[in-house]
Amino acid sequence: MNERANPLIALTIIIAGFAVVFALNGFIPERRPTLPDGLADSDLHVTGSRLRGFAFGSDGLIADWYYMRALQYVGDKILNYEGMSNIDDMRAMNPRLLHPLLENATDLDPHFLAAYTYGGIVLPAIDAEKAIAFANKGIMNNPDKWRLYQNLAYIYWRLGEYENAAQTFERGAAVKDASGVMSLMAAVMRSKGGSRETARSIYSEMLATSPDWQVTLTADRRLKELTSLDERDAADKVLSDVRERTGRCPAAIREILPQLTPIVLPAGHRFRIDAGGNLVDPTGAPYLLDRETCKIKLDRENTQIPL
């Protein structure tokens, strides 16, 4: 065979191979069977712990990829989920790959603080045991980072395990350069761990000090939720007083605005009224009046308050 023909044959084989690949790319998705939600995610076939040391110095880059994939994965789950999403319980969406993705990211980069923080915020709504184990992994790999103790204490607090939360805050307070709030929160956990006031303190601290945008976004939403709960409690009290005095529920929220505007809510907040004269929640969506219960409620179509 002519020696010059060998490269030509090899090139022809390569081109033919690419043609087959592109053809299959269009053929396979069109004929792939629909899988139940629990089986729709492709499992991770490579673990970060096995890749570490064999990535030719690209461990950090691959860790970043796994972390970004985790963010996209949860975002896709929320967008594609049919029904009302509950940020306190995301198990119905079955985001079973989030934990493996975050494990891979932190196996490759044990000091990946953003990944640990994101896991501390989201994993408790999926699997509490895995959330605690993942937070402890972050502390084990980074014992000098006080914010990771804060992450673990936050998980315990969400679970109602106030003594464990208090002990974790104390451990974090002993770390060099830790925020003085850590010691304060340990005491608060033991005195009034389940109060709305405690929740406001935790989220205010997270909003003011966390460098992670995911954490500050969650904290801001939670603070708005707490303010809305205060507003609804106060407005419902006024509605109840009016009904008891007059024997009827007001026909509209506007009827009780004169009684609401002087009220000073916890943390110094006051009721907000928009340009159209509507009583609005902290995200600017008008409150609605449920005349059957004679209570105000959130406008599910427009509010950004977690439901």
Structure description:
The chain has 307 residues and is mainly alpha-helical. 58% of the residues lie in helices and 3% in strands. It has 12 helices and 4 strands; from the N terminus they run ααααααααααααββββ. It has helices at residues 5-31, 48-51, 59-80, 98-108, 113-122, 128-141, 146-158, 162-173, 181-192, 196-209, 213-246, 257-260, and strands at residues 272-273, 279-280, 288-290, 295-297. It has a two-stranded antiparallel sheet. A two-stranded antiparallel ribbon has the order 3-4. Strand 3 and strand 4 (295-297) form a beta hairpin. Helix 6 (128-141) packs antiparallel against helix 7. The longest helix has 34 residues, at 213-246. The model is unreliable at 24-29, 32-40 and 42-46 (pLDDT under 50).
